[in-house]
Amino acid sequence: MVSSEEPVIGVLKKAGWWIADYVYAGYWQVRAMFDRTDPASFASGSAAHIIVLPGVYETWRFLQPLVAAMHDRGHPVHIVDTLHRNQRPVADMARAVEAFLTENGLDDVILVAHSKGGLAGKVVMTGPAGERVRSMLAIATPFGGSRYARLMLSRTLREFSPEDPSIVSLAQQLTVNDRIVSVYAAFDPHIPEGSELAGAKNVRLDTGGHFRILANPRVLVELAVLAE
């Protein structure tokens, strides 16, 4: 028999995950305002090149623990300054990354992307600079969109609607999926549809969150496998 308390426990657990997620996001937003670490300090190394693609309204500092960890392993990690806080359309974000790859002559690159960054990363992989990308680790990326985006007033956020042409078109691009590892939480308060991607390696973590998942040890493990 199913206890009537179980649904309540489930709701409380999700509420706890939600609160912890925003605390984590708030911490990194505040830290981004005061941290003066030069991103160029991570660009040295002899292992495979890594490019970081943050999510919407984020700076690269949201992924700074991953950046530092991979740089310590000998990987040059690059920040695309022209992305700023990623408020432009996904297609524009992808073009900025393509230009960065071409201008710097980078090949066999690994993309590490959070949320919207994963959409731009897939666009890059299916575009003219796609041959320069080895693989991508996508963390909490709305590959199928998010129904919540329909309620948003901002065009920047409405772009994530499941019916948006960019989401629909990208979902039809299947040729690069086998070079993508999609890591996501069992409960994502921003992406109720989840981040499972057909043909990719899908890693569903038994936790909750859209931002806090960036600090999950499994994320670094999957990135290390891709990179090494």
Secondary structure layout plus pairing:
Layout: H1 5-34, E1 50-53, H2 64-72, E2 77-79, H3 90-103, E3 109-114, H4 116-125, E4 133-139, H5 155-158, H6 165-171, E5 180-187, E6 201-208, H7 217-227
Parallel strand pairs: 1-2, 1-3, 3-4, 4-5, 5-6
Helix pairs in contact: 3-4
Task: Sum this structure up briefly.
Helices cover 37% and strands 16% of the residues. The protein has 228 residues and is an alpha/beta fold. Helix 4 links the parallel strand 3 and strand 4.
Give a verbal description of the structure.
- The chain has 228 residues and is of the alpha/beta class.
- The chain has helices spanning 5-34, 64-72, 90-103, 116-125, 155-158, 165-171, 217-227; strands spanning 50-53, 77-79, 109-114, 133-139, 180-187, 201-208.
- The chain has a 6-stranded parallel β-sheet, sandwiched between helices.
- β1 (50-53), α2 (64-72) and β2 (77-79) form a beta-alpha-beta unit.
- α3 crosses α4.
- The radius of gyration is 17 Å and the shape is globular.
- The model is unreliable at 1-6 (pLDDT under 50).
Provide the descriptors you would attach to this structure in a database record.
alpha/beta; 6 strands; disordered N terminus; globular
